[in-house]
Design brief:
elongated, 24 strands, 683 residues, alpha+beta, single chain, diphthine-ammonia ligase activity, 14 helices, YjgF/YER057c/UK114, 60s Ribosomal Protein L30, Chain: A, ATP-binding, EC 6.3.1.14
């Protein structure tokens, strides 16, 4: 931007008040100075600046820098985001010890996505500790911390010339009043106002505005846009500066939350039943049967591709390329690709210790906004297996939440995946484990039970915060969940943690190992409420079956999450759940006759139980006005001690229902020997 320009028409940057930026080099305390040295005598911090030459060329919510770096070959930047890239590139070149960038975004995904894109290309970590913070609390914390930030631009109803030059502390009551009356963002995240900071705890000198000129930018009767040009600003030394390390400790105690302590406190109100003892499952040698051909089915605007297994003798890298190439070929045959059209991928590995190597190859198949992903270790007969869900048409919309910034909000992505992906009203969230978001470390407490509680509550908080960020109600819109646990010991605890906070049905499955050696991973599916509201408007005549005298015959209403439960004659339990177009069925089966000592069950033991269970699934689907033609995929969990031919038998029984994938595991809650998770789409 031209130096004399005050206000730039930018989607990315605040430019009002930019003339004072060079003064900040004199104001900030130098953290590299000796702790006992005079802060005022320390060298100024290095300052890097660059003129904004580009414009808001790409204003989509997804930013791809391809084609945005230069114009017609003369080296000029096309998009203003590339100015930031070039500036930070200068910083990294001059100061290679710089490893991260702090971003003040609270609600704006537009800015966050672009900074993350730039930093990813430069190998820098983004720190967004304000992201998704409560704005009333953030405003209070800034005021209480002693920040003196004044308004230098106003652009909202309730803010005018009188408020320019006033501090956040002075305006806090008024901003909260406007928030209550007109939903004004207390921190100005809707563009209601802009500020410039004159003083804060990490300053050794403060700015003093001597002269300011008010400029009318837009004379709107309801919401005039005005800003201040800071004509004369002095730099003033501060006295009574405490040592820097003491300052850091004081600020940390005042401002930094202890996430683990909060989670432990939240968990103390949950009384757990005695943990049910479970017979440990001996993981036998892997079965020799390997299904390598993907099973594919399209229902409406969604496409399921399941059961892609690598050849048993393939090396890890070759196995990963094989399954991903198979997936890519299926998509390409339909005019789709892995970068733009995948919604959810479940990756099963034989050994979680190898997953970093899998991840390197896996990431090569994705671009800016990858699909959501869940990863588990299973008792596989091969190195890698993938199941996927994609949009069925090239032009079908797909929305991602892809947060790479480390924050207090929820865990940042630790691989090539998005936190959530929404398509055709179905919301798929990546498997959530209990990482402490601000440190990305797994909590470990004094006892295994306490550690499980901390991880379970923290990962569930991640899940609910992701839903909140995309305007999905965790209690109203979630339809079903699979809780993967690292041991059958945690079945009871996992179910109690889930049901204490959520209404949707859950299936708990034990697997040998989870990412980062987590004790639990939640993988849930939900229905997006914005689509549901449209559905309700078109189907307002339908009666709610929960209000009907005859639940068997009453039609379904998408506004309610209708659950149907049935118990089979062989101790299997079937739970159907529907919300709008999304239907799930969870069914558990148990072979009543014990396996002979030293041998496995036979096909004659297993087939009748599976057949009865499939019949009950059909009944459950009918009760929520769905049938087998709506089934996208069926995931079959089975304990590793089942008969060698179990997958063959199950495939034969389930062939009419839809694509089937198998997950050999180490246990299923309720003592079940196998379980079905059915995902259906009624468009």
């Amino acid at each position: 931007m031209v130096a004399s320009t005050d206000e730039l028409d930018s989607h990315m940057y605040q430019t009002v008040g930019h003339d004072v930026i060079p003064l900040y080099a004199k104001c900030f305390r130098n953290p590299a100075a000796p702790n006992n040295a005079d802060p005022l005598a320390a060298p100024d911090l290095p300052l890097f600046r660059r003129a904004i030459a580009g414009a808001s060329a790409n204003i989509a919510m997804t930013y791809d820098h391809a084609g945005a770096a230069t114009g017609d070959g003369d080296g000029h930047v096309v998009d203003e985001v590339e100015d930031l890239y070039l500036l930070l590139k200068d910083v990294v070149t001059a100061m290679p010890e710089v490893k991260g960038v702090s971003v003040g975004a609270i609600l704006s995904s537009y800015q966050r996505v672009r900074v993350e894109n730039v930093c990813q290309r430069l190998g820098l970590q983004v720190f967004g500790y304000l992201w998704q913070g409560d704005q009333v609390e953030l405003l209070a914390s800034m005021v209480n911390a002693g920040m003196n930030s004044i308004l230098i631009k106003v652009a909202a109803m309730g803010l005018d010339r009188r408020h320019l030059g006033k501090s956040l502390m002075q305006l806090q009551p008024h901003l909260l009043k406007m928030h209550a009356q007109f939903d004004l963002h207390p921190c100005g995240e809707g563009g209601e106002y802009e500020t410039i900071t004159l003083d804060c705890p990490v300053f050794r000198r403060r700015l003093v505005v001597k002269t300011a000129e008010t400029i009318m930018h837009s004379d709107d009767e309801i919401a005039p846009v005005l800003y201040q040009r800071l004509v004369d600003v002095d730099v003033e030394d501060k006295t009574e500066l405490v040592p820097y390390e003491q300052l850091r400790a004081d600020l940390r105690a005042q401002l930094v939350p202890d996430t683990v302590a909060q989670i432990v406190e939240d968990a103390t109100g949950v009384t757990l039943d005695a943990v049910a003892t479970s017979t440990a499952v001996v993981v036998r040698a892997e079965k020799k049967e390997v299904v390598t051909q993907p099973q594919v089915k399209s229902v409406g605007s969604l496409l399921a591709v399941t059961g892609i297994r690598a050849p048993a003798d393939a090396t890890l890298e070759n196995a990963t390329r094989y399954v991903m190439d198979q997936l890519a070929q299926v998509l390409q045959s339909r005019g789709l690709d892995t970068k733009r059209h995948l919604v959810m991928v479940t990756v099963l590995v034989k050994n979680m210790a190898d997953f970093a190597r899998v991840n390197v190859i896996y990431g090569q198949y994705f671009g800016v906004n990858p699909a959501a992903r869940a990863c588990i270790q299973a008792v596989l007969p091969c190195q890698v297996q993938v199941d996927a869900l994609a949009v069925a048409h090239p032009a079908a919309p797909r929305d991602n939440l892809h947060v790479q910034s480390i924050s207090y909000w929820a865990a940042a992505n630790i691989g090539p995946y998005s936190q959530s992906c929404t398509a055709a009203s179905h919301v798929l969230v990546a498997g959530q484990i209990g990482l402490v978001p601000e440190t990305m470390a797994m909590p470990s407490l004094k006892t295994p039970s306490a550690t499980f509680q901390a991880q379970a509550h923290l990962s569930l908080r991640h899940l609910t915060r992701i839903y909140d960020a995309i305007r999905v109600s965790p209690t109203r819109d979630v339809v079903a969940c699979v809780a993967y646990v690292s041991s059958p010991t945690w079945f009871t605890a996992a179910r109690q943690v889930w049901t204490s906070a959520m209404d949707a049905p859950v299936l708990a499955v034990a697997v040998p190992r989870l990412p980062r050696d987590a004790l639990v991973e939640w993988v849930a599916v939900a229905h997006h409420p914005e689509w549901r509201n449209q559905y309700n408007a078109a189907h307002a005549r339908l009666q709610n079956p929960l209000d009907s005298d005859d639940e068997e015959d009453a039609p379904i209403v998408a506004a309610r999450n209708v659950k149907v439960r049935a118990v089979t004659t062989r101790d299997g339990e079937v739970t159907a759940s529907r919300n709008g177009t999304l239907v799930t069925v969870i069914a558990r089966g148990k072979v009543s006759a014990p396996a002979p000592v030293g041998s496995e069950w036979t096909e004659a033991d297993v087939r009748p139980v599976l057949t009865d269970l499939v019949d009950d699934v059909g009944v459950a689907l009918a009760k929520v006005q769905a049938d087998q033609k709506h089934v996208l995929n069926v995931r079959v969990f089975y304990v590793a001690e089942m008969t060698t031919g179990f997958e063959t038998v199950a495939q034969q029984v389930l062939v009419s229902m839809g694509p089937v994938s198998f997950v050999p595991c180490t246990g299923i809650e309720g003592g079940a020997h196998f379980a079905l998770f059915v995902h259906a789409y009624v468009e």
